[in-house]
Amino acid sequence: MPEPTILGIQLEGWQGEVRCDPGFGSDEDDNQDVVILDKIEELRAIVAGVFDGHGQNGRKVAESCRAHICDAIRKHAPPLDQLTQMEWLDDCFQSLDRHVSTELREQLTESGAAGTIIIYMPEQKLLFTANVGDSKAVIGGAEFPVKPLTVDHLPSVGEEKRRILAAGGRVAASDDVQLGTLGELRVWKGSSTTPGLTISRSIGDSVAKEVGVIATPFTQRIDFRKLGPDGGNKLVVVASPGIWKVFSPKELIELLGKEKTVAAAADKAISEARNRWEDLWQGENTSIVVLTLPT
């Protein structure tokens, strides 16, 4: 009989692993991703997430987010009998944005971070997610279809673009004198050549905040008691774009679900992503949190 995989083993409780790789052709000095996997004892909660920095001081922004996110959750989380309210997650991110802005000040002119966190409360069997930017989280299982837990915040999206334009921003691709327009749509301040941000919500990015970029997260609450009686473990993955640019959510969950330990799954994701980036002769910071949660 084959040894059971992480989706089929009997779990006593949650299991989690984090990995962070600067990517093909880079070293740790080039890595602007940070990951978190921590406990908040007074809430009896697990916090996991990825902060993906960008700009000259992106690493500092991401590290500041990691250092202060648990305090923000402690400050704003409601009593356990009021967890149906969702505004507290918005308050957490706004508080985090203010704290980072105060701590780093002028270093945030054109630097910031995308961020995705999940908060898992085993006793209540509740999972909360919140994100800004383009890092993602997904959930899946052996008999449970892969479900996104986040939404990408991009200036190409209608609602995001309208908000930016109304605030005096401009949404356009980069413009090269010889090659014309290049790449994805970006956020610009009026007719200037800054900041050129590729996401429409973030932590930090003080110039972009002047033209409609915000720190308001997309939030979601999942009650594990309502997910259905399939009986299998759930696999939750939080990762930076270095993973999602080379994997679809369904492909990644299927790949990791074949592994026998969470550590092996996290290692597999990083090594396979690096191989795919190497095949493209490119590289990108690649970070992941892998959790298995019992139903």
How many structural domains can be distinguished in the coordinates? Answer: 1
Overall morphology: globular
| Helical/strand content category | alpha+beta
Q: Can you give the helix content as a percent range?
A: 25-40%
* Separation, N- and C-terminal Cα atoms: 24 Å
Main beta sheet: strand number and arrangement?
Answer: 6 strands, antiparallel
Rg from C-alpha positions? 19 Å
User: Number of helix segments?
Assistant: 7
Q: Determine the oligomeric state from the structure.
A: single chain
- The CATH superfamily turns out to be PPM-type phosphatase domain
In N-to-C order, the SSE pattern is: EEEHHEEEEHEEEEHEEHHHE
The total count of strands amounts to: 14
**Overall average pLDDT:** 91
The CATH level-2 architecture is identified as: 4-Layer Sandwich
Strand fraction:
25-35%
Summarize the structure.
With 295 residues, the protein is α+β, with helices and mostly antiparallel strands.
Q: Can you walk through the features of this model?
A:
The chain has 7 helices and 14 strands. With 295 residues, it is an alpha+beta fold. It has one domain: PPM-type phosphatase domain (Phosphatase 2c, domain 1), CATH 3.60.40.10. The chain is globular.
